[in-house]
Amino acid sequence: MIPELFFHDSATRQKQRFVPIDPQHVSIYVCGPTVYDLAHLGNARPVIVFDVLVRLLRRFYPRVTYVRNITDIDDKINDRARESGESIGAITARTTEAFHADMAAVGALPPDAEPRATQTIAGMIAFIERLIAGGHAYAAEGHVLFDTPSFPDYGALSGRTPEDLIAGARVEVAPFKRNPGDFVLWKPSDAETPGWDSPWGRGRPGWHIECSAMSLAQLGPDFDIHGGGHDLLFPHHENERAQSLCAYPGSGFARMWLHNGMLRVNGEKMSKSLGNFLTLRDILARGPWAGEAFRMLVLKTHYRAALDFTDAGLAEARADCDDDYAMLARAPQAGSDRAMIDWALAPLCDDLNTPLTLARLRDLRTVENAVTTGGSPTVGMERMGRHDVPEPGVAAASFREVAAVLGIAQSDPTSWRQGGLEQGGLAPAAIEAAIAARLAARKAKDFAEADRIRAELAEQGVVLEDGAGGTVWRLA
Ligand SMILES: [Zn+2]
């Protein structure tokens, strides 16, 4: 049975029930990277957010097609090639590869299709020809422009107008434009710039038409969800929508639009001039734990809210991961509990409320820890509305199943802890030896020595927990 899913739709500005066009096959398009530089923290947020959305949909629907493009034609790439002397092909190949590696490191599954602009040129030209034939675009001086007033619904998605675009000084004023808000579908290329033959001469596509043509090629004129960062809502998504609805009258294009909020660093907009610009690689270099800890940090904030990255926040997220793995390491094997899973998953079905699902996972963790150490799991159980104490391992197994939808806590608990320790220079064998020495000291009633060993480990970030089954350790 598929539960009711609700998502905030940017077009209607409210939460809507999600009803796929084909209940057997859900389709999603998310704008991918422009491959001219390493992914920064802000680029990673939509990838993580929509990865969770896709994992959630896959849990309930028989088939989900997730398309995320690669923008490998863009003036930023051309500029980079000119500045650096590196070829365009080398820049885009190297950057695409780095993007794949970085997104894998934060636990994002690859999309089902990853179309590239360079491989969709024929589709873009055909798309533009349809717009011209329909009276929605015109050629002028080697350019083709979208005729904004020809689409009276322009602005309905973002609530903005072509005048906003002009006020923001984000449009080029050009004599060949009929209206200042008209945007480029095709533009001429000089001998040094990449170009393709077209009915309007040798040139290259504008950014917006690339996404319209790639989503059409992969998903057709109607699909379920279009996602991206909030900064893409206007003009990029407004323009995509205008192009697609005009080229395919009667279609609906995306039925629902989801946008994630922006990411800041230490409370400020990330920028190279402020010196707070961080690539994902800067974070991943901190240790084998960093990819998952960063993912945890992202999911602790609701996807539509602004997210503030700080080192303290990352350390806290890492500690959450440590606590999760410590619980999983000591829980015995057991079957999961359907009611626990439904309870913890429910917030995700209500506009992808990852912070609340994480809070419920913490309750499952508390319950498991209490059950396995012979304590009383009342608090977590009360919030769950349950009175029966689960068998050891049941809450942990349920935790793991829900965590899989978030893409966290899926590693082997021992390797996680070893990864963290190697980073700190302490081997697990050394810890086990210290625990044994402490136990021997306690048996000999040398409590001062036992306390000294505990304190020494604590100094190195290892916390000991004495339970019914003996002493276990975790990272502080
Ligand atoms: Zn796009």
Helix-strand makeup class = alpha/beta
The main pleated sheet reads as: 4 strands, parallel
Number of domains: 3
Q: What helical percentage do the residues reach?
A: 40-55%
CATH architecture of the largest domain: 3-Layer(aba) Sandwich
GO molecular function: ATP binding; cysteine-tRNA ligase activity; zinc ion binding
Family: Belongs to the class-I aminoacyl-tRNA synthetase family.
Catalytic activity: tRNA(Cys) + L-cysteine + ATP = L-cysteinyl-tRNA(Cys) + AMP + diphosphate
EC number: 6.1.1.16
SSE topology sketch:
Layout (H helix, E strand, L loop, with lengths): L5 E4 L4 E4 L8 E5 L10 H20 L3 E5 L6 H10 L3 H18 L15 H13 L3 E4 L2 E4 L15 H6 L15 E6 L14 E3 L1 H13 L2 E8 L3 H15 L5 E8 L2 E3 L2 E2 L10 H5 L5 H10 L7 E3 L1 H20 L7 H12 L4 H19 L5 H7 L9 H13 L6 H12 L3 H16 L3 H13 L2 E6 L2 E6 L1
Parallel strand pairs: 3-4, 3-9, 9-10, 11-13
Antiparallel strand pairs: 1-2, 5-6, 6-7, 7-8, 11-12, 14-15
Helix pairs in contact: 4-6, 6-7, 9-10, 10-12, 10-15, 11-12, 11-14, 12-13, 12-14, 16-17
The structure holds zinc ion (ZN).
The site of zinc ion has 4 residues, from helix 7.
Which labels suit this protein?
Four Helix Bundle (Hemerythrin (Met), subunit A), Rossmann fold, alpha/beta, 476 residues, binds zinc ion, four-stranded parallel β-sheet
Q: What's this model, at a glance?
A:
With about 475 residues, the protein is α/β, with parallel strands linked by helices. It has helices spanning about 40-60, 75-85, 90-105, 120-135, 160-165, 205-220, 235-245, 280-285, 290-300, 310-330, 340-350, 355-370, 380-385, 395-405, 415-425, 430-445, 445-460, and strands at about 5-10, 15, 25-30, 65-70, 135-140, 145, 185-190, 205, 220-230, 255-260, 265, 270, 305-310, 460-465, 470-475. The chain contains 17 helices and 15 strands.
